[in-house]
């Protein structure tokens, strides 16, 4: 979804959004049942926890650096390819709820996009991406996260939820 502004080779080299520390649990992707089943087909030992109608993976083993990886991450990148969760397809954009209103924010950890001019990041949202995000969240409210301090707000939804 971000192919127009984010070069896939940059993501392939980085993968920062697929590795988490204990404070990032809230940031792990929310999987649909279909994607969860696909991961289970490929990695039957993966454990999931249900979350508001979706699923997040159960992270119980930290590496020596105190990090854990998404179970869909392989040496070659995400094994889900274009079938990755919506959360991952729009990352580093995030949808959050602030005082009862939905908004699109951005994660600063993605240097590739975070260092772009603000106008470019907002323009991309205004050219259709924001509508797609809000529309998907209408049918999958589990992807809406409570506002997390430090995430710059790029755009508020026009109507209230
Ligand atoms: S589903 Fe794929 S893109 Fe998303 S966090 Fe996991 S490995 Fe990364």
Describe the 3D structure:
30% of the residues lie in helices and 22% in strands. It has helices at residues 8-14, 33-42, 86-90, 111-114, 118-139; strands at 19-21, 48-51, 54-57, 67-69, 73-74, 77-78, 93-98, 101-106, 145-146, 153-156. Strand 7 and strand 8 form a beta hairpin. The mean pLDDT is 91. It starts with 7 loop residues before the first helix and ends in a 5-residue tail after the last strand. The chain has 161 residues and is an alpha+beta fold. It folds into two domains: 8-82, no CATH class; 89-156, no CATH class. It has five helices and ten strands, in the order H-E-H-E-E-E-E-E-H-E-E-H-H-E-E. Strands 9-7-8-10 form a four-stranded mixed β-sheet. A two-stranded antiparallel sheet has the order 1-4. The structure holds iron/sulfur cluster (SF4). Iron/sulfur cluster binds next to loops.
């Amino acid at each position: 979804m971000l192919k127009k502004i984010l070069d896939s080779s940059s993501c392939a080299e980085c993968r920062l959004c697929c590795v988490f520390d204990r404070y990032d649990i809230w940031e792990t992707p929310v999987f649909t049942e279909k994607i969860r089943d696909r991961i289970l087909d490929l990695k039957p030992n993966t454990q999931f926890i249900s979350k508001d109608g979706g699923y997040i993976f159960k992270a119980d083993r930290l590496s020596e650096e105190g990090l854990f990886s998404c179970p869909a991450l392989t040496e070659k990148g995400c094994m889900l390819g274009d079938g990755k969760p919506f959360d991952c397809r729009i990352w580093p954009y995030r949808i959050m709820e602030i005082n009862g209103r939905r908004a699109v924010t951005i994660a600063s950890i993605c240097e590739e996009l975070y260092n772009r001019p603000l106008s470019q990041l907002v323009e991309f949202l205004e050219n259709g991406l924001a509508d797609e995000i809000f529309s998907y969240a209408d049918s999958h409210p589990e992807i809406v996260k409570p506002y997390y301090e430090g995430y710059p707000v790029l755009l508020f939804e026009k109507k209230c939820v």
